[in-house]
Amino acid sequence: MVTIIFVGCGAALEHLYRQPLCDMERRGWLKVSAVVDPDTERARRAAAWFRRARSFPSLEAALLAVGRTDLVIIASPPAFHASQTCVAFERGCHVLCEKPMAHSVEGAKQMVAAAEKAGRLLALGMARRFYPSVEAVRLWVKANPDFPMLFSYREGSLFDWPVASPALFRRTTGGGGVLIDKGVHALDVLCHLFGAGRLVRSADDAPKGQGVESNAVLDLAFGSSRGLLQVSWEAPLNNGFHISGETEELWMPISPIDAIWKRSSSPGSAWKKEEARITWPGDLAEGRSSPMNIFDCIRLQLVSLLRAIHLGEPLMAGGKEGLAVLGLLLAAYEQSTPISQSWLPEAEQRRAAGAHWRSNGHLPPSELSCSVGAAPAQEAAPGRFH
Q: What's the rounded Cα separation, in Å, for the pair 182 and 346?
């Protein structure tokens, strides 16, 4: 049985991890021995969800009190990921760290080095790698390795995540806004599909001070393939991934996660639905499962980690993958310019540009816009997905 300490008793624990952890406790696969949060009332409430969990204000206190611990799951604000991960490795624990991996590349490298020194696993919470649709697209890209492809990835909706604290909206603790929230998953999917990538340009709407961005657009290159990533907390977008190959184009919606659409690149071709019949190990024996939603994927992510601990199977996403994603994410912030808002009068455009957190008060000569990028025409796309 794997003993677990869970760090961070916010929405990730309550809405994503709570149910699969409770189910696995009932099956005897694991035991949640402690939960950690500086908000003592929130920690006590979370401890009551599990059979024998105790609550603590810090990871160090929990490790000292509960004794042997096999796995620490870290879902605290990103600013604390590196230090808490290194503490866990010092005590001989494996770690599953939620996204983003760390607050800096230096912190992420410290995490990887600590894992290697301790001889323990560093797993990253990138559950979308378990989407059957993502795996189907990855196999499609792998079958077309040399052709330069054009892609767009859009994901936008009104922010409705039930956060437990304002940490996500402060640059000092959250590290950023919608790019940290939605964009990190999209970047991970793109790295999973194409391999290592390079940032060409980036733009967002974060204001000066400690505010974070609600909209961001990234121009990205992966080898000879090129495309745009657009994410938003303010507006619904044509959510999904569109890619054009030599003779065929493909559309992967954000939801549902078990199908993709294809059509010939010839003019007038119709979209055709293709079910993504991909399965993953669903338990610690031989059973397999095809996920239908993000909650199924969280469960499969936990199963995959337990199998890595018990059976030595490879991780779906580890420190190397996390570093690749974090590098793109931080480069986007370092090179950020104001998003073009061409629908505004020129004077308002200049005021908005001057209020940008990276701005010197002048519009840059070339900007990214929220509306740019290749995507299926609205009337030709295979449907709207919710």
A: 30
Q: What is the pTM of this model?
A: 0.89
d(CA 368, CA 180): 19
Is 84 within the bounds of a domain?
yes
CATH at residue 36: 3.40.50.720
Provide, rounded to the nearest whole percent, the portion of the chain with pLDDT above 70.
92
Domain count, the chain: 2
318 contacts 301 by C-beta, under 8 angstroms: no
For residues 151 and 20, state if they share a domain.
no
Domain carrying residue 138: 129-283+324-354
**CATH code, 178:** 3.30.360.10
Tokens of 35: 């939960």
Cα 203 to Cα 75: distance, rounded to the nearest angstrom: 27
**Residue 168 per-residue DSSP state:** G
Residue 319 in domain: no
* pLDDT at 121 > cutoff 80: yes
- Greatest pairwise CA separation for the chain in angstroms: 67
Q: Which two tokens stand for residue 368?
A: 């990214």
Are residues 73 and 149 both part of a single domain? Answer: no
Q: Is 360 exposed, middle or buried (0-12, 13-18, 19+ CB in 10 A)?
A: exposed
355, burial (CB in 10 Å: exposed 0-12, middle 13-18, buried 19+): middle
- Identify the domain boundary among 72, 91, 124: 124
Question: Tokens for 265?
Answer: 């690149």
Per residue in 182-210, pLDDT (tens digit) is: 999 999 999 999 999 999 999 999 988 87
The confidence score (pLDDT) of residue 227 equals 97
**Same domain flag for 91 and 137:** no
| The length of the chain, given as a count of residues | 386
* pLDDT one-digit tens code per residue, 2-55: 999 999 999 999 999 999 999 999 999 999 999 999 999 999 999 999 999 999
DSSP annotation of 315 reads P
Contact of 242 with 206, CB cutoff 8 Å: no
**Of 225, 154, 150, 149, whose CA–CA distance to 371 is shortest?**
154
Same domain, 8 and 117: yes
Kindly state the DSSP code that residue 28 receives in the 8-state scheme: T
pLDDT on residue 375: 39
Whether residue 147 sits in one domain with residue 79: no
